[in-house]
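user:
I keep going back and forth on a fold encoding question. Separate attempts, laid side by side, tell us more than any discussion would. Would you put together a sequence-and-structure record for a protein of your own picking? Write it directly below this note and I will take it from there.

assistant:
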Amino acid sequence: MKNKFILPLVVLGSSVFGQFTVSGQLENYANKSVLVKIYENSDLKLIKNTKTDAQGNFSANVPKEYNGFVRIDLPTGENLSLLTDNKNLKFKTVAGQDFMNRLEIIEGNTQKEYNKIIAMQPLNEVQNQVFPYLLQAYKPTDEFYQAIIKEQNRINTLNKDAKYSGLVDYIKTLNDLKQAAQSGKDTQAVDKIVTHFVNDDDRLEQSGTFTDLVFAYVNTKLSTGEGDNIEEKLIAATDEILAKTDITTARGQNILSTLLNIVPKDQYAGFHKKYVDKVNGLTCKITDQLKKRVGQATAMQVGSKVPNITFDKAINGKKSLYDIKANQKLIVFWASWCPACQQEIPYIKEFYKDFKAKGGEIVAISLDFDETAFKDATKDLPWYNYTDLLRWDSPIAEQFSVSSTPTLFLVDKDNKIIKEVHHISELEAAKK
């Protein structure tokens, strides 16, 4: 009988251990949205969309064991990354221009320690990016030359003497590797990246550098590989890294998911088809992230039905995208803060006159974050206008695989995609 109670108790203890709290106070930011995110399988995952109170306070629970960066995003575009070793984080700052400069860590020793590395970054950048050029301009016997050498030695000593805990040291190693790979000075950097891909635990995905390391690996392979065909070199590099990490593992799938995200589909359709087909042919367990990436690639093709959009509040009596009946619909993703969108709006207005007369309708989905700005921008727009005020965290943008604005989908009466474009002129040209 006793054995029956052991498993539930162990599970309960594990789940409690995996939870911690992120809390903060943002001065001059009362009753406004805060997005709390963690890295999951290399992607940023929204764990809570909350609001500050009258004093700018907020809090959120991280529901799992986590050793990496928690990111605080404001819909204005400001963001803050804080490092944690699965312990509570508490901070205070002020919204606006001093967001980073006024940061005070109240609780979270790992981030306090990481701040030492951040403080060293300007010195390291001067040493790596400025000093080499200055030394070329002076003779070794010059006083200024000798002063530079002395400062270099001082910086090296500071870096050498600095002692960090395990997680902080690990993050520093990854950051140094990323910089080395990006600079092109360390010819062994790509091999070191592969070693991390093969051997590291899930701290690698939670480090905030995963995408950068994948990009650095591929970019190095593109610059050193034989031949001029970029797509062929991309495929060769991808096949190589998947063979080393194994596409049947979570790490291999995380790498492939990242590549499918960063490689432009419109330029390298063959690359995407090859690996989407490869994933569809797998019989092993597929990560949710890769499933989503492949599903999106398949779903948003010409002839496929677009996802329905349910409005929080009815718009002109309509509760969803599918409720809006028309011979054709033009779904426009835009934002009031997007200059290219503002330039496009007058042309869309002109297009709408004839489009409406022929039984068409426009549904504009704004990736706004400020309700007042949205209302001001849409007051003279004659079509259906909607926003969930989540900017790029909008699940609607994710469902439609929208990565830039403006993006326009022309769909038929059954909500099936006819064409995807980025400028209304592309539709105008197609009619001629």
